[in-house]
Write a structure and sequence with these properties.
Helices cover 32% and strands 32% of the residues. By secondary structure, the protein is α+β, with helices and mostly antiparallel strands. Strands 1, 2, 3, 4 and 5 form a 5-stranded antiparallel beta sheet that branches. The chain is elongated and about 50 Å long.
């Protein structure tokens, strides 16, 4: 088991100080995707028109292992619908 930290960036940065104990790196990558999905699920309206959102996964020493970025961009046709 290893401790992984899932830091998030939306309009503000949230630092994960607790971490999650997971058995394999594959589980940590899967958790990063789950975290992204939960962020989008919780705040779908806040996502559009903001800076890209991100989940940064680090180990216990703070070494960045993976980063996922999410960015929603409206085309001119999409902007006309707002």
């Amino acid at each position: 088991m290893a401790l992984y930290y899932f830091h998030t960036q939306t309009e503000t940065r949230s630092t994960d100080s607790d971490g999650i104990d997971l058995g394999t790196p594959r589980e940590a990558r899967a958790q990063a995707i789950i975290t992204c999905g939960q962020m989008l699920k919780d705040s779908p309206d806040a996502f559009w028109g903001t800076r890209p959102w991100a989940v940064v996964v680090t180990d216990a020493k703070g070494l960045i292992l993976w980063e996922l970025s999410m960015d929603g961009i409206s085309s001119p046709a999409g902007l006309a619908l707002d």
